[in-house]
Amino acid sequence: MSAFEKWAGDFDKIYKSDTEKLHRFEVFKANLQFIESMKNQPELTYTVGLNQFADLTNSEFVAKYATLTLPKKQKRSTSNTHANLTSVPSSIDWRSLGAVTPIKDQGQCGSCWAFSAVAAIEGINQIKTGTLISLSEQELVDCDTTCSACNGGYMDYAFQWVIQNGGITTETNYGYTSGTTGTGGTCNTAKTGNHAVTIAGYTDVTPYSETSLMNAAAVQPISVAIAASGSAFQFYSGGIFTGPCTTQLDHGVTVVGYNNTGSTHYWIVKNSWGTSWGESGYIRMLKDYSKTSGICGIAIEPSYPTK
After folding, report:
1. Res 71: pLDDT
2. Does the structure show a pLDDT above 80 at 65?
3. Are the C-beta atoms of residues 162 and 306 closer than 8 Å to each other?
4. Active-site residues: which are they?
């Protein structure tokens, strides 16, 4: 119980009853056993560890944090303005180039789609204007009715909404509250008219092609969908993630770079689960995977805003 008590203190966990606390302790023990079992696999190129999700069963974790909603019949654009690049750098990291805002936390809300889309918009805006502005996920959660607020959404729909709205406002103007409430709020139309950043359109990257994704990521941060429902992903703490994972896309994140220079190539991916998860909120994922889907389906649904 002492390890659980320390963990609960570290993550400010408060339970409504002793019964609930005992139940969460049992879940914690099972998760700790999984984490310990992963340490006995020396061939792994990544590590797992305790984080804020350690008192959630995997099914609870999936229900809350793997909520991306893909259209059943989707018409994807075939144009890709970055497809014909003659040369791309062997590595790029948009964080060091000033195009990535600090890690954010979606909290108790299935709003990954909004965080993924906003990160891509923040990126292209900085690249085009030289100014990095933190933009409002809450505006999308509250106002984009083509998505389902804290119950899932889709990055392309978020891009469409920003275009139709005439822009998106700042985080400062329309702050994030759904991480605490767990629900979307009422759209504040007074704030939605205060546009800080506009985009001209969006483009879908050629699917099932890591080369196309790399060409796009060499130019700007890219919204991607991945399969994030596995326990290894839930407790990822560092290194180059190689699975196991499926290609059942359920989580929206943002590719903010890649590296082809070492023996194991990888994508640099910005998540929205705070800095306690992964590598201070980021994950490196295996690049040049044996299947065209990319690791965890990362190459299936990439898209980016244009400006």
Report:
1. 81
2. yes
3. no
4. 112, 251, 271
